[in-house]
Design goal:
Strand content: 15-25%
Radius of gyration: 17 Å
Strand order of the largest sheet: 1-5-3-4-2
Number of helices: 3
Number of domains: 1
Helix content: 10-25%
Order of helices and strands: EEHHEEHE
Distance between the termini: 11 Å
CATH class: Alpha Beta
Largest sheet: 5 strands, antiparallel
Low-confidence stretches: 1-20, 22-27, 47-60
Shape: globular
Structural class: alpha+beta
Mean pLDDT: 75
CATH topology: Fusion Protein Consisting Of Minor Coat Protein, Glycine Rich Linker, Tola, And A His Tag, Chain: A, Domain 2
CATH architecture: 2-Layer Sandwich
Length: 160
Amino acid sequence: MTVRAVLVVVSVAACHADPPPAAPSNRSASPTEPPPYDGVTSCGWSAGVTDAGFASESGAMGSLDKSLIARPIKARSAAFAACYRATLERDPKAEGDVQTKFVILADGSVGQIEVRGFDRELDRCMCDELLRLSYPKFGSARFGRITVFYPFRFKPSTTH
């Protein structure tokens, strides 16, 4: 049995510009097949959701240092890699970028999440793992949530 190593490159960016939209699919589904994946998976709480799928940006926003944002994600890197390994079992050539957008609430929990990737199952697993993240409490009357954009790059390792 060959064990396949997985390379997961993670970088952090905390900003407020939307990531590029997923490319539209030209495939049409038959009535017996599920519709093609549109590249977007959402999970988490839904209070205050707008048509765009995220809470209104008019509320107070806070900030955390990038290293504080990255720390819980890096601590769960094995879980994110496991999501990708499951994808490789279905498609050994699967690779690409997964853009995530999530809200850190004042109590340190992660709320609303949007994952834009290349595989429905991978994105669902990423959503589930992001919900498990925990951050330091930062809330006050002035700052109630932080919106984070965090990209992941998944690529099969060339080593065996």
